[in-house]
Every structure is written in structure tokens, then in C-alpha cells.
Amino acid sequence: DGGMLGVMGTFIAKGRPVGRSWANLANTSSAGATFVDVAATVAWEMGAEVVVTATDFGVHEAETRRILSTTPLTSGVTRLHLDAPLTFQHFSGEESHGTAGRSIEMRAKVGLLT
Question: Cα-flanking dihedrals φ and ψ of residue 7, to 5°?
Fold first, then answer.
């Protein structure tokens, strides 16, 4: 699913492949946490900036942090050690609603910004 880009002149794009550019939060991260676990194997570099999306009603609760280091965990989960504690809780889980036992998966996203 590509887009279209019209250029009248020269277009120079620079960058490098980063693999995955975002992942679901693997488990809920509490306010004050200095790491987040993402549900993917990622090779994001030390010093890269990431955003953890808000999972509450306040969109201002999205937070940006820099990666200090990464640790691969079991089952394709990667721990990102952050440069500062999180200010807000970021939810990751399933919520069941109604008598039919239907569940809704709700997970913060973690995106690579740099």
C-alpha cells in the first residue's frame, strides 16, 4: 500500500533501514518505570528517540524518551531501558465486556522517532 509523491526537480531521501518502526507494548508500564517491554524483536539503537502512546483520555499523556539500552527477553519481547522515568501509566492488555465474554485488546504503541 504505497502512496504517491510528485517531484518537480530533485528529491533526495536519506536514511537507513530500521526494521520495525513501531510495536505494541507487551505489558502495562507504571508511572515511574524506567523501561518498557515491546512485543517484538527490535534492534533500535542506543540514543534513539521513542514515543509511548497515551492509553488514557488525555492525549497529552503520550511521552517521548531516549533509549539507553535494549535487552532481548523471551518470546520475541524486547526491553527498552529509558533515559527518564515515565510520568504516566501506559496500558497493555485485554478487557472483557458484556455477558458474551467478548474481549477488546488495548495496548499502547511504542514508535521509533529517530
Answer: -130, 130
Confidence (pLDDT) at 77: 97
Lowest mean pLDDT among 31-35, 45-49, 63-67, 101-105: 101-105
CA distance 41 to 103: 26
Q: What percentage of the chain's residues is helix, strand, coil (to nearest 5)?
A: 5, 40, 60
- Above pLDDT 70, what percent of the chain? 97
Q: How many beta carbons lie within 10 A of that of residue 22, not counting itself?
A: 15
Q: What is the pTM of this model?
A: 0.82
CA angle at 42 for the pair 37 and 58, rounded to the nearest 5°: 45
The angle at the Cα of 82, spanning 54 to 71, to the nearest 5 degrees, equals 110
Quick one: residue 100, left, alpha or beta (phi over 0 = left, psi -120 to 50 = alpha)?
Answer: alpha
